[in-house]
Design goal:
Blueprint lengths: L25 H16 L5 E3 L9 E4 L14 E12 L2 E7 L2 E10 L2 E7 L5 E7 H14 L14 E3 L2
Antiparallel strand pairs: 1-2, 2-3, 3-6, 4-5, 5-8, 6-7
The protein binds zinc ion.
């Protein structure tokens, strides 16, 4: 399967608010599959959001199992219309992004979140996530509202060029 092209900052499409997913069909599943493949092809790809491939839809794929940062996780997640319902605690960690390839930065995120989303069949689900996986989910949900991690770095000194 071909891998989709990742659009990069400062492409204006990364700054749009994405539209809700309303149709749950084979086409949606095919797009989720393509997003997953595109994520896995990228360096350190543990998450991806549809706006990163120019699709203005509220779709997120997360899979932290391949991360070097071990964490309790839910394996592969296909999330449509995800909403972070509750946040608890605070943690500081390093983030990068397939759409901001040259930079990494320190970002404060909630330690634990409760997130709801629609699965492939349009069924609403809810999970509690914490640590690195929760960080990735928060990062990807931000993409759906046109927010990039570089907007959230704790200071410009916390943004460094990737070597
Ligand atoms: Zn990103």
């Amino acid at each position: 399967m071909p891998v989709l092209k990742i659009i990069k900052q400062p492409d204006a499409r990364l700054r749009q608010k994405a539209a809700a997913v309303v149709t749950f069909d084979a086409q949606l599943e095919a797009l989720f599959d393509l997003l997953e493949e595109t994520m896995r092809a990228g360096p350190g790809g543990v998450g991806i959001a549809a706006p990163q491939v120019g699709e203005s839809l509220r779709m997120v794929v997360v899979d932290c199992r391949a991360s070097l940062r071990p964490c309790k996780n839910h394996g592969l997640l296909y999330m449509a219309n995800p909403v972070v319902e509750e946040m608890d605690g605070e943690t500081l960690g390093r983030e990068g992004c397939l759409s901001v390839p040259d930079w990494v930065g320190m970002v404060k995120r909630a330690q634990t979140i409760l997130v709801s989303y629609d699965d492939l069949h349009g069924q609403r689900r809810q999970i509690e996530s914490s640590g690195f996986e929760a960080r990735v989910i928060q990062h990807e949900v931000d993409h759906l509202d046109g927010i990039l991690f570089i907007d959230r770095v704790i200071s410009t000194k916390a943004l460094v060029r990737r070597l």
